[in-house]
Amino acid sequence: LRRENVAASTFNRVIGRDEAKRQGQPFQAEASDADGWLAGGQQESKKVFSFKDPARTFGFVKPGLLSLDDMRKRLNSVWSDLKDEKFLTSSTILERLLTEAKAGAR
Question: What is the Cα–Cα distance from 50 to 59, expressed in whole angstroms?
Fold first, then answer.
């Protein structure tokens, strides 16, 4: 997720903010409570993190506010070719990390 130019930001699209770059980064007119939660507030962390090298994105969900399927739809809005095997839940990531750690300890 990144800023593509002054008018487009895939990161802002996922968290529900207006994509155009300007002071204060306002939310889209139809912003939801989930958008505000994802974006964080003053002295409050965002809930989506994106890294360039290696390319990966992490995000959180909040049951009752933002479901796993909702997050998948948000990410599909910027990556229409997102494959199911690339969309991992925390339990899958943890299981893989523990399996790799056990294999490395042998």
Answer: 9
